[in-house]
Amino acid sequence: MSAAITSSRTNQGGFLFSPGIDLFFVINCCWPLILLVDRVGGVTTHQSLLFWQIYFVTAPHRWITLALVAVDHHKGHDRRRQFIAFGSAILIGCLCVKMGTGSLLCLGAIDYIWNAWHFASQHHGVFQIYQRRSQSSMGGAKTRFDKFVFRGFMLFVIARVAGWGWTAGPFEHWHWVASVDWLVLIIPVGLVIRQLVRYAHGSNANLASLTYLISVMSLFTALLLASHYENSQWVVQLALASAIFHSLEYMSIVTWSMSRSGATSQSAILSHLATVWVSFMAIFIIVIGLGNYLLSRGYFEFWVFINIIVAFWHYCFDGMIWKSRKPKSTSANAVAA
């Protein structure tokens, strides 16, 4: 009975697990606390946070995609040939670029651009998951427009973080971009206000989608302001918080997707989270063990190259895994029946 009540309240608020778990792992409402610790702790604390972020959060969340493709046939939809084909193409392409240029600079640039799209797509996708748990839904045209605006704002911010429009840097002739920042800020403010109005009227908005939108838009607004004032320290610290946000969110969504048909009680949810994330840690142990071995042998560039390939596989496979399949037509269903 209590489990049913918990499930009902969770669904009513639109949360995937429970309000507490969602707020911490998916909505990441604690990102300002991470930023505060980073600011107060100084260089030593920042380096420690960076180490934990890279090896305990970012690396496992990328490598886990390979395991997800290998073992989760529901996500793979038996598209093994497609995964092998795209994976092989990425591997061959990376090898050709590396041998042709003799450095990782070109691959690093591709990684940043692809990662920017990956960030924007994932954040919008999670917001859409929360939105679809509302009682009503928007039309296709409005959804496409929201998708364009949401992702466009994030891509603009990520480009600004990279130095686009800064007075000094690789894009120093694009100074005029900084004057657009204040106009672009209308987007997150407008999205949040609209969501607040919808939630207040009980129309196509739930508490989970509202809190998620406020959290992610606040983070990217802070990144845009830090880039506007060209405060490199703030940009680096906010980028660290953003990376942790992104990775925790991804692993939580993977966990939710794998446990949608499971139990709904708080203890069962926490137990499942612990079980799945232990497997993530096992992958981490393998990854960091391999990394330490290669680094100890002086193969730093080779280790970076491997991680770039894994990152590209992660971006590619992630898009294939989570992309909704087109529903079968009514006639096709009738024939199948």
UniProtKB/TrEMBL annotation:
Keywords: Membrane, Transmembrane, Transmembrane helix
Record bears the keyword Cytoplasm: no
Residue stretches spanning the membrane: 15-37, 49-71, 83-114, 148-167, 173-193, 205-228, 234-256, 268-290, 302-322
Entry annotated with the keyword Transcription regulation: no
Protein name: Transmembrane protein
Organism: Aporhodopirellula rubra
Taxonomic lineage from the root: Bacteria, Pseudomonadati, Planctomycetota, Planctomycetia, Pirellulales
